[in-house]
Amino acid sequence: MNKDAQQKAPFADALDAYCRLHMVPFHTPGHKLGQGAPQRQRELFGEALRSDLGLMYALDDLFQPEGPLKEAMELAADLYGAGRTFFSINGTTACIEAMILAVCQPGDTILIPREAHRSVISGLILSGAVPAYMESRFAPAEEVSLGPDAASLTAAMEAHPEAVAVLFTYPTYDGIAGKLQEMTALAHARGLTVLVDEAHGAHLAFHDDLPKDALACGADCVAQSTHKLAGSLTQTSMLHCRQGFAGTDRVAAAMALVQSTSPHYWFLASLDLARQQLALFGEAEETRLLALAREARQALNSLAGIRCFGKEILRYDAVGGFDETKLTIDFSGLGLSGREAELLLRKAGIEVELTAGSHVLALLALGDDDRSVHALVGACRTIAAGRTVVTTQGLRDEAPLPVPHVVLPPRQAWYAQRECVSLADSAGRIAAENVTFYPPGIPVLAAGEAVTTEALAYIRGKLAAGYETNGAADPSLQTLQVVRE
Ligand SMILES: Cc1ncc(COP(=O)(O)O)c(C=O)c1O
């Protein structure tokens, strides 16, 4: 990494300098630097509207970068050790779609984990690739999925010698990192391209106590939500291709396919600034956050009835690393489900990232400090103080996700004639839509899969526990879109 060059923020500087020219705009956006914006919008966004710009040839072009944006993306590649890095203004969703589009032809088999995010299914619908699922390991005591291990990858590769690529989710939402280096080597030995959904890992490269990042594990293409765990604006991400990856130009073309032709320059400037921040302060910040997380975990574990697992998760064979900045807080010892705990925490002014089974997930990132952590621990202490500790036996209710039975390629199911049937009548039919609870955004059923009794039981269990679906035509899930027979 070139430390001197990393001090710069070429695109943010260029945007700033351009705004200072006070040009009279005869171009989009139509509100013309805020002047014509709705009153409420002006009140909400104020002076910021003066820099609401996108696609200005005076600055640079995301899809044909030649100036400061090219330099900004090169600095990001230099920081992460990539051959080439692409900025995304459409989150990791676009990056995942693009890497699948770049690597898979229609009909190609790609190995994916059970915990594939819904954007992976979108990538399959767009590309026409066919998923073959790798079995995942589950930690029953912690109620979390561990993802696939080397044995499940090998089994999937043997069952699908035709597979051209494999996609891993690394780390999981809960911060659990599989043995990616080993699995990448196994996949490469069979000629598979290795794609990694590292949505929750933009910070991994900056501290040795965090799991090794996917590029360092040898992955070919890595999608990261910079906005999730680094400092950029929501919906901004990066896609990295490793040095020498033969598909890089195809990835560049695919990134242009799945993103707006009018990328907001704030998003691009914020990626540039987040990269600069990580380069200059990443290690110090992650050191601070790890200390904060360790303190929080210790305090949470001292509360009767509350548990927050830590590095002991490494005792499972499938696990190669753990990101301690993820706090999975289990309330089963207080007789609470995760959903109930979430609502109690919300009443106390704490909003968590996700809820499942008997736990909630609180994540620590750059914006956290002693105060936020004390607020979280304090709210948990208050919840614990008002309840009696109960035996945890029988209270855990987060089951592993049902094993998918792929009948049709997702793209074929997407285009098939469909009909709407009651959830009860959908058993044995082929889903024409995804059923996803968000977060974590992992489809329980993806388009093209058989509606199995296990999937129905899982869906009913989630609905009964108060979880809401996202993306289905009937969000109440009384009915389901299935392929017409
Ligand atoms: C594992 C995983 N992959 C991909 C995504 C999509 O990322 P983005 O929201 O940046 O589009 C998410 C979002 O929650 C995710 O959790």
Give short descriptive properties of this protein.
3 domains; Ornithine Decarboxylase, Chain A, domain 4; alpha+beta; Aspartate Aminotransferase, domain 1; four-stranded antiparallel β-sheet; globular; binds pyridoxal-5'-phosphate; Aspartate Aminotransferase, domain 2; single chain; 485 residues; seven-stranded mixed β-sheet
Overall description:
With 485 residues, the protein is α+β, with helices and mostly antiparallel strands. The protein contains 14 helices and 19 strands. The strands form 6 sheets. It has a 7-stranded mixed sheet, sandwiched between helices. The protein has a 4-stranded antiparallel sheet with strand order 11-13-15-14. A two-stranded antiparallel ribbon has the order 4-5. A hairpin with a 4-residue loop joins strand 17 and strand 18 (442-445). The structure holds pyridoxal-5'-phosphate (PLP). Pyridoxal-5'-phosphate binds next to helix 4.
Topology of helices and strands:
Elements: H1 10-20, H2 39-45, H3 68-80, E1 84-88, H4 91-103, E2 109-113, H5 118-127, E3 130-134, E4 137-139, E5 144-147, H6 150-159, E6 165-169, E7 176-178, H7 180-189, E8 193-197, E9 221-224, H8 226-229, E10 237-241, H9 248-257, H10 265-301, E11 307-308, E12 319-322, E13 326-330, H11 338-347, E14 354-356, E15 359-363, H12 370-385, H13 410-415, E16 418-422, E17 435-437, E18 442-445, H14 453-464, E19 479-483
Parallel strand pairs: 2-3, 2-6, 6-8, 8-9
Antiparallel strand pairs: 1-10, 4-5, 7-12, 9-10, 11-13, 13-15, 14-15, 16-19, 17-18
The site of pyridoxal-5'-phosphate has 14 residues, from helix 4.
